[in-house]
Design a protein that fits this description.
- This protein has helices spanning 18-30, 67-76, 92-95, 113-121, 130-140, 162-168, 193-206, 230-236, 248-253, 257-264, 281-288, 301-305, 321-327, and strands at residues 6-11, 36-42, 50-52, 55-59, 81-84, 101-104, 124-127, 176-181, 214-219, 243-244, 269-272, 293-296, 310-312.
- The chain is 33% helix and 17% strand.
- By secondary structure, it is α/β, with parallel strands linked by helices.
- The chain has 13 helices and 13 strands.
- The chain has two domains: 6-140, Rossmann fold (3-Layer(aba) Sandwich); 162-327, Glycogen Phosphorylase B (Rossmann fold), CATH 3.40.50.2000.
- The strands form two sheets. A seven-stranded mixed beta sheet has the order 3-4-2-1-5-6-7, sandwiched between helices. Strands 10-9-8-11-12-13 form a six-stranded parallel beta sheet.
Length: 332
């Protein structure tokens, strides 16, 4: 039997994102047991490479998410198990590689025929949630190879003293802080930012005294050209005095895990209103830090929250004049 030689294709392990965390927490550990090369379709520019814990980390050419580089690395390093850790559908070419393995999120049943054929083409298909496994079974009429959920490092993500943490992030001690940690990188409101802010506006109209008591810390990139203009959305919902975004440096490079754990520890409540989640590592991180969670009762979120948090059923979007205006904020 040939010894496994693994190529892991994903986000660089030093990038502070969900996919970066998976590369760091899973790939680098596997690399201590089996020969491994990590190829990065995001996070490492061509012209540079490095080793972490003895694992070689390489950049790829950008075209088609690194297809040419990956195929070259497979030949050069005699790889016999290529793993893609990302969404599966942008990588139909990866599925056709010998012994191809997918490990990652499946966040809905709404995949087109080409995506379903891509699912079927993988030699090994491993969703990170039970929901993803159900989707795979329904769409392909096959069982997934396995379902392996993500995890967090409990030596890092644990409760820290709230008052001390609030001093670090300059948050007032007596405020009730609602925390949100989510990307803002979709042209459509998948993460529910519009739902959150429009709902908060309605809540404060009904309970005006609470507006002075509540702060919302939204850890994201509010001005991302890929997503919604959250600065404008907050302004149109009259929440400028309530919503805090991270400083520019944290938006650009992110926060290390220890600092993220302390940020979670400033929260009184963690909120997630995503309409589609293939897993949602921030929910798990918040729970590990002892923060109660309210989340949407959709996709993979109930697996993380049911029985020890609150799940909210999502209704169909109602495009009132004010709601439609907020959803179509001018990105200029």
């Amino acid at each position: 039997m040939k010894k496994l030689r693994i190529l892991w294709h994903g986000v660089a392990p030093f990038i502070y994102s969900g996919y970066g965390s998976v590369t760091k927490n899973v790939a680098l550990r596997i690399g201590q047991i089996y020969p491994m090369v990590i190829s990065c379709y995001y996070g490492l520019h061509t012209g540079g490479s490095l080793r972490i814990h003895g694992v070689r980390i390489l950049p790829t050419v950008e075209q088609n998410y690194g297809e040419f580089s990956v195929k070259h690395f497979i030949r050069k390093f005699k790889i016999n198990l290529p793993i893609i850790a990302s969404d599966f559908w942008p990588f139909p070419w990866f599925a056709t590689l010998p012994n191809s393995m997918f490990y990652g999120p499946i966040d809905s049943y709404s995949y087109v025929d080409e995506d379903i054929e891509c699912m079927k083409a993988y030699s090994f298909f491993i969703p990170c949630s039970k929901f993803g496994g159900k989707v795979y079974r329904k769409l392909t009429k096959r069982k997934p190879t396995e379902v392996i959920p993500h995890g967090v490092d409990l030596n890092i993500f644990k409760p820290y003293p709230k008052e001390e943490c609030r001093k670090i992030f300059n948050l007032k001690r007596k405020k009730f802080v609602i925390g949100i940690v989510a990307a803002n990188s979709d042209p459509e409101p998948r993460k529910g930012w519009d739902d959150i802010f429009i709902t908060l506006e309605s809540f404060f109209e009904k309970f005006p005294k609470e507006k002075k008591r509540i702060t919302i810390f939204a850890y994201t990139q509010p001005g991302s050209p890929k997503g919604l203009n959250l600065y404008e959305l907050v302004k149109r919902c009259h929440l400028e005095k309530n919503v805090i975004f991270p400083e520019h440096l944290a938006q650009v490079v992110g926060l290390p895990d220890f600092e993220m754990a302390k940020l979670y520890s400033t929260f009184d409540l963690f909120l997630n209103a995503s309409r589609r989640e293939g897993f949602c590592i921030p929910v798990l991180e918040a729970q590990a830090c002892g923060i109660p969670v309210i989340a949407a009762n959709s996709s993979a979120l109930p697996e993380l929250v049911k029985g020890h948090g609150w799940l909210v059923d999502l209704k169909d979007r109602v495009f009132t004049p004010r709601g439609w205006e907020c959803k179509k904020v001018d990105r200029e």
